[in-house]
Amino acid sequence: MTQQPAGTVTVTAPMVTVTDVRRSFGTGERAVHALRGVSFTIGRGELTALKGRSGSGKTTLLNLVGGLDSPTGGTITLDGTDMGGLDEDGRLALRRDRLGFVFQSFGLLPVLTAAENVGIPMRLRKVPAAQREERARTLLALVGLADHANQRPGELSGGQQQRVAIARALANEPDLIIADEPTGQLDSETGRSIMELLRAVVRSEGVTVLVATHDPNLMELADRVVELRDGHIVEDPAPVA
């Protein structure tokens, strides 16, 4: 095995690399250009906040990074995997095995308990029931809901439902969590507690998070803030060391 010289610094590749990404809808004069040559990287274990007004391209960019859509041009890589080289089955496997999603509307199934909602991604991977139930309990404890495992979404507050959604996003030990306005339906105090939870998850689980938010009070919890305006990045400070 080759040894590195003393003092050599090992540089790890970014978790996400977005290079000259463009996304247009429609053709000709009526085409809508949602993204116009966007480039940036997200480091491993980094919480990056994406800000911008409605129509700036935030959700389009999240959908592309999450493999829910394909760019018109440019490339996106996740941990060195070129997402453009994946077929639909490959993108499905990537979303199932390596990504977690948190949505503004929580996205919980009302007929299932909190623990059962957390277990859904593991069911898709055919994780044995005992292992699935144990991890669901562990994750609910992580987000402060150990005593609410058997309650259904309608019996939980908005903040509690979003905590269940975060636990669900962590179920399959993803490399990256994508959160689209996760505090949009919450009051400011509850919203901040959710962002603080995401911050804590980055530290404790080593996961990378890309979160879209319009709340400037929450951006201070991010390692870095990237601003989109009219499909362009207008602000992208260097990652926090």
UniProtKB/TrEMBL annotation:
InterPro entries: AAA+_ATPase, ABC_transporter-like_ATP-bd, ABC_transporter-like_CS, ABC_transpr_LolD-like, MacB-like_ATP-bd, P-loop_NTPase. Residues 16-240 form the ABC transporter domain. One of its GO terms (molecular function) is ATP binding. It comes from the Bacteria. It holds the Pfam family ABC_tran. Keywords: ATP-binding, Nucleotide-binding, Transport. The keyword Transport applies. CDD domains: ABC_MJ0796_LolCDE_FtsE. This is ABC transporter ATP-binding protein. The lineage of its organism: Bacteria, Bacillati, Actinomycetota, Actinomycetes, Kitasatosporales.
